[in-house]
UniProtKB/TrEMBL annotation:
<dbReference type="InterPro" id="IPR036271">
    <property type="entry name" value="Tet_transcr_reg_TetR-rel_C_sf"/>
</dbReference>
<dbReference type="InterPro" id="IPR009057">
    <property type="entry name" value="Homeodomain-like_sf"/>
</dbReference>
<feature type="DNA-binding region" description="H-T-H motif">
    <location>
        <begin position="52"/>
        <end position="71"/>
    </location>
</feature>
<dbReference type="Pfam" id="PF08362">
    <property type="entry name" value="TetR_C_3"/>
</dbReference>
<dbReference type="Pfam" id="PF00440">
    <property type="entry name" value="TetR_N"/>
</dbReference>
<feature type="compositionally biased region" description="Polar residues">
    <location>
        <begin position="9"/>
        <end position="20"/>
    </location>
</feature>
<dbReference type="InterPro" id="IPR013573">
    <property type="entry name" value="Tscrpt_reg_YcdC_C"/>
</dbReference>
<dbReference type="InterPro" id="IPR001647">
    <property type="entry name" value="HTH_TetR"/>
</dbReference>
<keyword id="KW-0238">DNA-binding</keyword>
<feature type="domain" description="HTH tetR-type">
    <location>
        <begin position="29"/>
        <end position="89"/>
    </location>
</feature>
<dbReference type="InterPro" id="IPR050109">
    <property type="entry name" value="HTH-type_TetR-like_transc_reg"/>
</dbReference>
<protein>
    <submittedName>
        <fullName>Pyrimidine utilization regulatory protein R</fullName>
    </submittedName>
</protein>
<feature type="region of interest" description="Disordered">
    <location>
        <begin position="1"/>
        <end position="25"/>
    </location>
</feature>
């Protein structure tokens, strides 16, 4: 029997209120974040090959099938974690502009990078592990978006140099040096603790470390 014109199938046409829909979306995002946080913790300790989907789902307190609903494979989950990390890691560099004072800008950048090493050591270690292994899953991100960003910010640093605001320096090597020194305090935190008995969570040690890094890297660049 045909249904009268205008009939609505309430089972298939059900719509959620804006408030309910917002709650559902928040719950989905919170679960996705929980999975990525669990994956980050395990990947940074055990690597990709040493981590299983079952371990991630257990730590995130979700079923394996639920995890695979959000991320189709372990490699897909790993790539999501590492590309998100790269985005977060590079965001402070994106703010460089020729109109800024170079010493102040670079000093702030060093501070932000050191804060990241203090607050996000697992992320730094995971990125380091990926690169040391040849960046098999991240190489395209390194060859394109990262290179594009570094080329653009190198141009800014060269503008500072041409304007006499900064002594001549190779921009790429300056950025590499900032990364190497600040991330060392996360990637080799065990060594730092063994030698000094302290780490960046100690406010006095953090400030001393920051002042020394800024002095080592920037004093020779002041015009």
């Amino acid at each position: 029997m045909s249904k009268p014109e205008g009939h609505v199938n309430t089972k298939t046409a059900r719509a959620f209120s804006p408030t309910t829909q917002k709650r559902r979306e928040q719950a989905l995002q919170e679960k996705r974040t929980r999975i990525m946080d669990a994956a980050l913790s395990l990947f940074s300790k055990n690597g990709v090959s040493g981590t299983t989907v079952e371990q991630v789902s257990e730590l995130a307190n979700v079923s394996k099938s639920n995890l695979l609903y959000y991320f189709k494979s372990k490699d897909g989950l790993y790539l999501s974690v590492i590309t998100h990390l790269l985005d977060v890691w590079l965001t402070p560099l994106q703010s460089f502009s020729a109109e800024q004072d170079p010493i102040e800008t670079l000093s702030n950048y060093i501070k932000v990078k050191l804060e990241m090493s203090r607050d996000n050591p697992a992320e730094s270690k995971l990125f380091c592990m990926e690169v040391v292994q040849g960046a098999p899953l991240l190489i395209k991100e390194l060859e394109t978006p990262l290179k594009t960003l570094l080329d653009a910010k190198s141009a800014v640093i060269n503008e500072w140099i041409k304007a006499g605001k900064l002594k001549p320096v190779d921009p790429i090597h300056l950025i590499f040096s900032i990364w190497a020194i600040t991330q060392h305090y996360a990637d080799f935190s065990v060594q730092i603790k063994a030698v000094t008995g302290k780490n960046l969570s100690d406010p006095v040690f953090f400030d001393t470390t920051l002042n020394n890094i800024q002095h080592i890297l920037l004093d020779g660049l002041k015009p």
